[in-house]
Amino acid sequence: MRWSMEHKETWLHQTNPTAKLLLFLPMFVVIVFVHNPNVLMNWAVGFTVLFILFSGYRMKHIFLFLLPFLFIFVSTSSSMILFGKGETTWFRWGLIHITEESFYRGVHLGFRALLFAIFGLMFALTTKPVLLFYSLMQQVKLQPKYAYSFLAAIRLLPIMIEEFQTVHQALKVRRAAKASGFRGKLELVKRYAIPLLSQSIRRAQRIAVAMETKGFTNDRKRTFYYEVKLGKYDVYLFVVICMIVAVGYYMADVFPYVAVKDVR
């Protein structure tokens, strides 16, 4: 079964995963405390362009990745726009009450959610899990037993999905994949859950024994197959983020999209 899409390696893939994480996490906090919708709009444009140009994926794949988050953008902003509070009424019909204040707050909230999605996608699509945990072990000194445990858990996810499909096919052959009524649904859940849980418990036990045998329970200094270091691409990413943030603030002040600069 194929679990990955073809993509090109760009300089974003070459950045240190820990450095990338430490650069992205403060942005989540900053975005929460920015109340100027013009700034968030500029940041959304800038980081979306960065994501599209240097994620290494084709446009159709990028569109598929962004499609659920565009739906979240519409649903989040529309709920605030249609049912928010404000003094300058634009439209009222039954429970729907659109005001100038609620409109700008809704747009602001939608762009905030979109920025969260862009940063999350950019990190997930340009970071290999193996290199992330190797970087955490080397730069942040995360204990190897925890890092390798997370790696093993990530590797188990595709196996669990394949096992679920196997159980589903077996139940279909026996004509036991469907049920009606509450008790029938509960019995159907048991048919899926018991074999999946038993297999997961056995596999987790084998992994724990293997890790203990390999010496992951002590704190001795270990060597690593992959050496993940800081480099010039981390500086590039830092400079690009600072430029987008600074230009976004400047353009919001000089060429604002809307007159409102604070939606609180």
UniProtKB/TrEMBL annotation:
- Provide the alphabetized UniProt keywords: Membrane, Transmembrane, Transmembrane helix
| Location in or out of the cell | Membrane
For this record, the Gene Ontology CC terms, alphabetical, are: plasma membrane
Q: What is its main location?
A: membrane
Establish whether keyword Nucleotide-binding is in the entry. Answer: no
- Asked whether the keyword rRNA-binding is assigned, the reply is no
Q: How does the protein's chain sit in the membrane according to the entry?
A: Multi-pass membrane protein
- Superkingdom of the source species: Bacteria
* Entries under InterPro entries matching the protein: ABC/ECF_trnsptr_transmembrane
Q: Where are the transmembrane segments?
A: 18-34, 40-57, 64-83, 113-136, 235-252
Any idea what this protein is called? Energy-coupling factor transport system permease protein
Q: Which organism is it from?
A: Anoxybacillus pushchinoensis
